[in-house]
Amino acid sequence: MKIHILFPFKEGPAGGGNQFLKALKQEWQKQGVYEENLPKAQVVLFNSHHCLREVFRAKKKFPQKIFIHRLDGPMRAYRKKEAFLDRLIFKTNSFVADGIVWQSQWSQEQNKKIFLYNAVYQTVIYNAPDEKIFNKRNKTPFHSNKKIKLVGASWSSNPLKGFHFYQYLDTHLDFQKYEMTFVGRSPVAFQNIKMIEPQTPQKLADILKQNDIFIFASHVESCSNALIEALSCGLPCVAFRGSSNPEIIKQGGEFFESPEQLISKIDKVASNYSFYEQKLPVFSLQKTAKQYFDFAQKIFDDSKSGYYIIKEVGARALLAFYKEYLFSYYWKIFNKLRK
To answer: What is the CATH number of the domain that holds 179?
Structure first.
């Protein structure tokens, strides 16, 4: 059995989904189970709201292929103006997906509060980093008698990434005791926090390893790759208590809900650094790739034995999808005109 990933891959600095799927593809290539040519694959993995028209066309053209939907969201939790995408994602999932991989328990629960996702095969598999890049090798050791180095990162400048918390740190953090770097995009101009533009994964990993504690203020995350990458580089985290953050970090850090609490939690982690360092969760790309593959293999085997009948796209489903697709397209245009 071979798997193809139907996704618009990008090179260079990019969002978390792109980085994870690139790493997953490379791992499957190494294991000899990836197929670059979609028509030759038995299973197709597609992602969230990306390329849904192409996904639908592929399912229509290759009705006997198994399609697995990797889901995050819901979109309305991140970007309220794009809530219309939730319905398009759900419709596509209902017509096309033979299985669903949820990125976290939180994401699964929140989506199911909105729509009845009833695929026969569903599972939760956390993301994992490219371990050749995001690892603890050559990490700068922690020294409490030196300035403690904090770092934050975000590919997106969405306000829900918690920039008001970073702004608070910029004016209230004790910069005699701490220094802080922020990598990525920010709608806020900092006076004391050092800003670095978005970096390639290799350069980001180097920056993370030069720091001690990762500050993660994002309110809404399905399964943050930035968070997993920092943890994998050996950084205890101080994160906003919300969405999937506690699910991912577990005991490898502390959680805050207010600006004042943020500083006290940073102090707590800095004072008990070795404790949190020993409690860091471990993420394995090899294990994650196997979980995805085993999930796909189960559906494939059940379809071959006749236990499961693979979904096929009929004329009614095709009409319903394009109706929803056009609705989403016009909403997107409407939102752009309103800016």
So the answer is: 3.40.50.2000
Q: Would you state the structure tokens that stand for residue 130, as one six-digit string? A: 């490219």
Continuous segment of H or E residues that includes residue 178: strand 178-184
pTM of the model: 0.91
The pLDDT of residue 331 = 60
pLDDT along the chain (339 residues), means of 10: 95 78 96 97 95 92 96 81 81 94 97 93 96 96 95 91 97 98 95 96 96 97 95 98 97 97 98 98 97 98 97 78 70 60
- Please indicate, yes or no, whether residues 110 and 19 belong to a single structural domain of this protein: yes
The length of the chain in residues reads 339
Handedness of CA 325, 103, 8, 199 (dihedral sign): positive
In a domain, 108, yes or no: yes
- The phi and psi torsions of 196 (rounded to 5 degrees) equal -125, 135
| 247 alpha-carbon distance from chain centroid | 13
Last residue in a domain, options 232, 261, 278: 278
User: What gap in Å lies between CA 281 and CA 232, rounded to an integer?
Assistant: 8
Quote the pLDDT of residue 84: 75
Three-state secondary structure call for residue 70: strand
Is residue 180 within 8 A of residue 152, CB to CB? The reply is: yes
Supply the pLDDT for residue 338.
61
Q: Is residue 61 within a helix (H) or strand (E), and if so which, with residue range?
A: helix 52-61
Please say whether the beta carbons of 105 and 124 come within 8 A. yes
Give the rounded distance of the alpha carbon of 53 from its chain centre.
Answer: 22
Containing domain of residue 243, as a range? 148-278
Q: Look at residue 160 in the predicted model and tell me its pLDDT.
A: 87
25 and 119 part of one domain = yes
The identity of residue 333, as a single letter, is I
279 HSE (CA, 13 A, CB side): 15
Q: What is the DSSP string of 124-153?
A: E------TTTSSSTTPPPP-TTSPEEEEEE
> What is d(CA 307, CA 185) in angstroms, rounded to the nearest whole number?
49
**What SS3 class is residue 229?**
helix
Beta-bridge mates of residue 32:
none
Furthest-apart CA atoms within the chain: distance in Å:
69
Q: State phi, psi for 179 to the nearest 5 degrees.
A: -130, 155
